[in-house]
Design goal:
The chain is mostly beta strands. The protein has no helices and 33 strands. The chain is elongated.
């Protein structure tokens, strides 16, 4: 038989339509980011996760200015685990943002260089016409858990966003791995580099005005080939005018437990993308049987808008597995939570075969009456096994599919 490896994917809730209604280290202390500019006046687009296939590709994020004329002093890329500048995590082109007129925006191109799931902080420092310095941040996240849906890799994980002064601005990264004649956005516009071909990188923009305290915004992409709809991906984001905190959570790289170790850990980043401080932040593991646990947290009592913190998660296991971790917090109005999936693997598990009975039985067989029991051989280790041989210690009373022993050279068992 052949067993196939299962891939663990993050699952997103798909909602259609729109309506209106009322690194493997322990968490370490990060230096406090300097005071953040009022998020209602100067802010980046709300941006969803970038598919891992988008590494070394260019995506667009806009910087919005609802105050006076601003001059860009610097653009930096920060490691969110320590808030230190590490510009090799991404390239940023900011030529169009040297000055930003009042009530206007400019576009920046970001090219992430992360080779695995991870994140970085995009930081802009600007001065107004009085020389006052303003600093704004945004968390840029890359995830290898975004699956292709008939050629479209797109995961709008922004379940909720703040709408400063009643207006929302979304930038949703998209990758294509099949060719389309047309890519249609039912709400907003999509801009692709390289056309609609495999490997093309796109940014899907959605802008609008919140019609009430809470507005559901549909984000839907459709791919067409030969005039027919062949792919669709749809999500809904809630835009709120309430002054509340809104945490984003990173998708970490998978945890690999070394062959001579029994545990390893990874950092999870939290970023406050809202307009109020997040309080009472409590990281946790949703499944007690997942062999995951929280090690440490740098999250303060109050996490200000535009600020970040991190907590570390430990996997202690001798087998492969997956689990979900979350962070519960108070957003200023009610208790809220964010979550992400973690996959952990044990390096170089020894070869292991398991023989199990799946049907029939020999336990109640009688002389002269044939009986059959069906057995399954499974490879539960991490190494591929070939040339599987088998035999019976005693062949007088039993048969193996018409042969008492043999070598199966055509069989191949792969890791489940």
């Amino acid at each position: 038989m052949r067993n196939h490896k299962l891939k663990v994917l993050s699952i997103a809730l798909l909602l259609l339509g729109g309506c209106t209604s009322g690194g493997n280290n322990s968490a370490t202390g990060a230096p406090v980011i300097e005071p953040i500019a009022t998020q209602q006046k100067i802010f980046f687009d709300d941006i969803s996760q970038i598919p891992a296939q988008g590494t070394d590709k260019s995506f667009i994020i806009r910087l919005h200015n609802n105050s006076s004329r601003l001059s860009l002093q610097s653009i930096g890329v920060l490691d969110p685990t320590n808030n230190k500048v590490v510009n090799d995590l991404a390239d940023v082109k900011s030529d169009m943002c040297s000055t930003i007129p009042a009530n206007n925006n400019c576009s920046l191109n970001i090219v992430p260089h992360l080779q695995k799931s991870g994140s970085f902080i995009l930081q802009a420092k600007l001065t107004d016409n009085k020389g006052k310095l303003h600093t704004v941040n945004q968390l840029i996240r890359l995830s290898d858990k975004i699956a292709s849906n008939n050629g479209i890799l797109f995961d709008n994980d922004l379940t909720s966003v703040s709408a400063p002064e009643g207006v929302y601005h979304l930038a949703l990264p998209v990758m294509l791995d099949e060719q389309f004649d047309k890519l249609k956005a039912s709400n907003g516009s999509v801009l692709c580099s390289g056309g609609f071909n495999p490997g093309s990188n796109c940014t899907y923009f959605v802008d609008g005005k919140a019609l009430g305290d809470n507005t559901l915004v549909a984000t839907k992409l459709e791919g067409y080939r030969n005039g027919k709809l062949v792919a669709t991906r749809s999500y809904t984001t809630r835009a709120t005018t309430d002054i509340r905190a809104n945490l984003l959570i990173s998708q970490p790289e998978d945890i690999t437990i070394a062959e001579n170790a029994s545990e390893s850990s990874v950092n999870i980043i939290l970023f406050n993308n809202g307009l109020a401080s997040a309080t009472s932040i409590v990281p946790g593991v949703t499944d007690a049987n997942s062999r995951l646990s929280i090690l440490a947290s740098t999250c303060p009592t109050d996490l200000a808008p535009g600020a970040n913190c991190n907590f570390s998660v430990k996997a202690q296991s001798e087998v492969h597995g997956a689990g979900t971790v979350e962070a519960e917090y108070h957003n200023g109005i009610t208790v809220d939570k964010v979550s992400t999936n973690i996959v952990y693997t044990k390096a170089n598990l020894p070869a292991k075969l398991v023989l199990s009975s799946v049907a029939g039985s020999l336990s109640n067989s009688f002389v002269g009456i044939p009986a059959t029991e069906y057995l399954v051989i499974s490879n539960t280790g991490t190494r591929k096994l070939t040339a599987l041989s088998y035999k019976l210690d005693k062949t007088t009373d039993f048969m193996l599919s018409g042969a008492s022993s043999g070598v199966v050279t055509a069989w191949e068992l792969v890791v489940p």
